[in-house]
């Protein structure tokens, strides 16, 4: 067991490495929760890599967050999505 910690790469909250569930494929960045990891990966355009390491439930959660942000971005754009 190790008590090593790292700050969340998004909000700087302390994350215990032994408990961390969200991190980059190279493990250079850790995140305290799904939202922080999602934010970071969106900014860094690395979503497919992290998703490969997540469980189905976690992927679903991230997908939901992503859809929410996409919808919000669409609104800010002032454009209507048409099919
Ligand atoms: Zn965080």
Q: Short description, anyone?
A:
This protein has 83 residues and is α+β, with helices and mostly antiparallel strands. It is 48% helix and 12% strand.
List keywords for this structure.
single chain, 83 residues, alpha+beta, two-stranded antiparallel ribbon, two-stranded antiparallel sheet, 3 helices, 4 strands, binds zinc ion
Strand order of the largest sheet: 1-2
The unique ligands bound to this protein are:
zinc ion
Q: What is the tally of beta strands? A: 4
What's the SSE pattern?
EEEEHHH
* Integer average pLDDT: 78
Into which percent range does the helicity of residues fall? 40-55%
Task: Describe this protein's structure.
The protein is α+β, with helices and mostly antiparallel strands. The protein has one domain. Helix content is 48%, strand content 12%. The chain is built from three helices and four strands; from the N terminus they run ββββααα. The chain has helices at residues 34-44, 47-53, 56-77; strands at residues 5-7, 14-16, 22-23, 30-31. The strands form two sheets. The chain has a two-stranded antiparallel ribbon with strand order 1-2. Strands 3-4 form a two-stranded antiparallel ribbon. The longest helix has 22 residues, at 56-77. It is globular and about 45 Å long. Zinc ion (ZN) binds next to loops.
């Amino acid at each position: 067991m190790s008590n090593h910690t790292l700050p969340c790469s998004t909000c700087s909250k302390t994350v215990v490495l032994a408990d961390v569930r969200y991190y980059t494929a190279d493990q250079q960045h850790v995140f305290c929760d799904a939202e922080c990891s999602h934010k970071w990966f969106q900014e860094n355009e690395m979503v497919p890599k992290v998703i490969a390491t997540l469980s189905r439930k976690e992927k679903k959660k991230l997908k939901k967050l992503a859809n929410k942000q996409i919808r919000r971005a669409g609104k800010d754009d002032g454009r209507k999505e048409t099919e």
